[in-house]
TrEMBL record, chain A:
An example Gene Ontology CC term for this record: membrane
Transmembrane stretches, start-end: 12-33
Name of the protein described by the UniProt record: Menaquinol:cytochrome c reductase iron-sulfur subunit
Cofactor(s), names only, from the UniProt record: [2Fe-2S] cluster
Species whose genome carries this gene: Salimicrobium flavidum
Stated family: Belongs to the Rieske iron-sulfur protein family.
Keywords, sorted A to Z: 2Fe-2S, Disulfide bond, Electron transport, Iron, Iron-sulfur, Membrane, Metal-binding, Oxidoreductase, Transmembrane, Transmembrane helix, Transport
Keyword Lipid metabolism: no
Subunit comment: The main subunits of the menaquinol:cytochrome c complex are a Rieske-type iron-sulfur protein (QcrA), a cytochrome b (QcrB) and a cytochrome c (QcrC).
Cytoplasm recorded as keyword: no
Cross-referenced InterPro entries: Rieske_2Fe-2S (IPR017941), Rieske_2Fe-2S_sf (IPR036922), Rieske_Fe-S_prot (IPR014349), Rieske_Fe-S_prot_C (IPR005805), TAT_signal (IPR006311)
UniProtKB/TrEMBL annotation, chain B:
Key words of the record: Cell membrane, Electron transport, Heme, Iron, Membrane, Metal-binding, Transmembrane, Transmembrane helix, Transport
Name by which UniProt lists this protein: Menaquinol:cytochrome c reductase cytochrome b subunit
SUPFAM superfamilies attached to this UniProt entry: Transmembrane di-heme cytochromes
Membrane spanning residue stretches: 39-67, 96-114, 126-146, 193-215
Gene Ontology biological process: respiratory electron transport chain
A cellular component annotation (GO) from this entry: plasma membrane
Length: 165, 224
């Protein structure tokens, strides 16, 4: 038979005062913490597409297209330049690759190096990618080029967010 | 778990005497509202400090979104108030808290004055208290400009003219505050921001430290 545990007056006061103090502190801190971590909970800009090119223009050879998007950065709105390497692959599907090297963010070029006429080449550290954007082992990049979400509507190519692979 | 953590630190650093020295003091009967309800007047100093802590915290969080620049200040305040979760609450805390600090500070001053608690040996702490009063007023004045709306702009215009009315050095003082001889603008805003978040809080911490150390050394003034 064990006696039911007695809570001493001192313990009781300790618990209630700590609890009450904690409750007040939490009530004070909660809005501020939620305020600070708000960017994590903001909806992303995914799902917004911009018309980039006429589908007729696309060939089997990657071409570079540029377009502008309206970027809303908190209270600051600006136009941001985007660009992509776009071509039709063997299955006649449209592929739109981001030109930003996955090594250190330089801009890659198609077939700019004469030794590798069928590859994307990054001039900064000689990083190379195959035509479908996969990095070639032994060169600096560690990941394939990101692919843009794309869709075709009324003969126009629309590109959205880039997706890392 | 918590006890174990405490013991672990205590074993190495011997924290017990430290917090006992800071916190373990009996509240004299004449200061304790549990004995004499009228002793609530002794709470005003503590309440001033409590609200000041809220001001420091909410201010720290506000600077996560605020920019002290005439192009963006108003927009960033509008953004944090309207778009960021609980922005209204956090800015509200800072906005209303600013007035509450001043009111509490005033009540605290009245209590000390009418009880004669400023008399020897506590004159020095009264002086520190008056300096704290000026620092708090300065914080209120500089913070008022930061949203960069019409009210803020013209209130500062008036404040600067008051500064300019100082004998002899009035004009220089105005220029020093505004950052420009004629314009109340970009330089005024950054200046006020720097004063509001760095210079005055630094002075506030030093003075508050002195205020509390003096209370500890001299004790609370005796019953009337």
């Amino acid at each position: 038979m064990s006696e039911p545990k007695k809570v001493s007056r001192r313990q009781f006061l300790n618990y209630t005062l700590t609890g009450l103090g904690g409750f007040m502190a939490a009530g004070m801190m909660a809005p501020m913490v939620r305020f600070a971590i708000d960017p994590v909970f903001k909806p992303s800009a995914a799902g917004e597409f911009t018309s980039v090119a006429d589908v007729e223009e696309l060939t089997n050879e990657p071409q570079r297209f540029e377009w502008e998007i309206e970027q809303v950065d908190g209270w600051y709105e600006s136009k941001v330049q985007k660009s992509a390497w776009v071509y039709r692959n063997e299955d006649d599907e449209i592929v739109a690759l981001s030109p930003v090297c996955t090594h250190l963010g330089c801009t890659v070029d198609w077939a700019s190096n004469e030794e590798y006429p069928n590859q994307f080449f990054c001039p900064c550290h000689a990083g190379r990618y195959t035509k479908d954007g996969v990095n070639i082992p032994g060169t600096p990049p560690t990941a394939p080029l990101p692919v843009y979400e794309s869709k075709v509507e009324e003969g126009m190519l629309y590109l959205g967010q880039e997706i890392a692979r | 778990m918590l006890q174990k953590l405490y013991d672990w630190v205590d074993e190495r650093v011997d924290v017990n005497p430290i917090w006992r020295d800071i916190a373990d003091h009996e509240v004299p009967e004449h200061v304790n509202p549990a004995y004499h309800f009228s002793a609530f007047v002794y709470c005003f100093g503590g309440l001033t400090f409590f609200v000041t802590v809220i001001q420091i915290l909410s201010g720290m969080f506000l600077t996560m979104y605020y920019v002290p620049d005439i192009e963006n200040a108003w927009n960033s305040v509008y953004y944090l108030q309207m778009e960021v979760a609980h922005g209204q609450i956090v800015r509200g805390m800072h906005h209303w808290g600013a007035s509450v600090v001043t009111v509490m500070l005033f009540l605290h001053t009245l209590r000390v004055f009418f009880q004669g608690a400023y008399k020897k040996p506590r004159e020095l702490n009264w002086i520190v208290g008056v300096l704290l009063f000026f620092v708090i007023l300065g914080l209120g004045f500089t913070g008022y400009l930061l949203p960069w709306d019409n009210k803020a702009y013209f209130a500062t215009q008036v404040g600067l003219e008051i500064a300019a009315a100082t004998p002899v050095i009035g004009d220089q003082l105005r220029t020093l505050l505004a950052g420009d001889q004629t314009i109340v603008g970009a330089q005024t805003l950054t200046r006020f921001f720097a004063i509001h978040v760095f210079f005055l809080p630094a002075a506030l911490f030093v003075l508050l430290g002195a205020h509390f150390v003096l209370i500890r050394r001299q004790g609370i003034s005796g019953p009337l």
